[in-house]
Amino acid sequence: xxxxxxxxxxxxxxxxxxxxxxxxxxxxxxxxxxxxxxxxxxxxxxxxxxxxxxxxxxxxxxxxxxxxxxxxxxxxxxxxxxxxxxxxxxxxxxxxxxxxxxxxxxxxxxxxxxxxxxxxxxxxxxxxxxxxxxxxxxxxxxxxxxxxxxxxxxxxxxxxxxxxxxxxxxxxxxxxxxxxxxxxxxxxxxxxxxxxxxxxxxxxxxxxxxxxxxxxxxxxxxxxxxxxxxxxxxxxxxxxxxxxxxxxxxxxxxxxxxxxxxxxxxxxxxxxxxxxxx
Length: 278
Description:
By secondary structure, the chain is mostly helical. It has helices spanning 10-23, 27-42, 61-73, 77-81, 85-90, 116-124, 137-144, 153-170, 185-193, 199-219, 231-235, 250-261, 272-277; strands spanning 101-102, 105-106. The protein has a two-stranded antiparallel sheet with strand order 1-2. The longest helix is centred in the C-terminal third of the chain and has 21 residues, at 199-219.
C-alpha cells in the first residue's frame, strides 16, 4: 500500500493492512490492484465514471482506503478490483504492459530489473508471481552484487526453491535459513522417520515436488510461454537506481533454468527421462 500506491503516510498504510487483516484478504494483491487502478486513472485509461467518482491518484491515501473498502464489500468498481490485476487489465485497453502479475498472481516484494534471479523466480514460479515461495534469491544477489548476471541464475533459483520447499515440508520458518542450514535438515528428517536421510536425498525430494507442481500446471495447459513477466519489465528500461537502463533478459534466464532443472527447453516441462529418474 505504501510504494505501490505512492503513500508516504504510515498510519494510512497500517490502516489499509488492518482492513485486509479483518476481511481476510491479501495485502499484496489488494495493494497492487489499487496501485494498478491508480496508474490506469493517471494515464486516462479509466475515469471518474469508472471509479465511482474516486480520484484514484498516487499519493491519495483517502482514495486508497475508499477503494479498499469497496474491494472488501465488492461494491461498484471495487467488485472489479477484487478480481485482481489480470482480470482488471483485461477490461482496460492499453494496460496490459504494466499489469504487474504472473499467471494471474500479483507480484509483491521487489523491483526485479537488475535482479535476474528474482526476476526468474517470478516468471517460472508454479503458483505465479510469488516473491518468496521459491525462496528469496534476491538476498544472495544483493549480497554478491551479481544481480545482472545471467549464467548460473537457473541453478541459483533451483537451489533457492528446493531450500524453501524443504523448509515448508518440515514446517520451519523460511527466515530461519541462516541459522537452520541445509546440512542440518537431514538430522531433523532422520529423527522424524527413524532412518538416515542425506542432503542429496532431501534435494531429490525438493526437485520431485517442483516437477509435480509443474506437471499439474502442464496438465492445465501451462507452457514455456506462460513463464513470462509484464511487458514493463521486459521492454521498459529501468529509469533510475543502480540498475538504471536495464531490462530483464528473460528468455536467456529461462533457458538457464530449464537446463539446470533438466527440463525440455522448448516446452519448459520435465522430460520423461527426468520423471523416470525421480
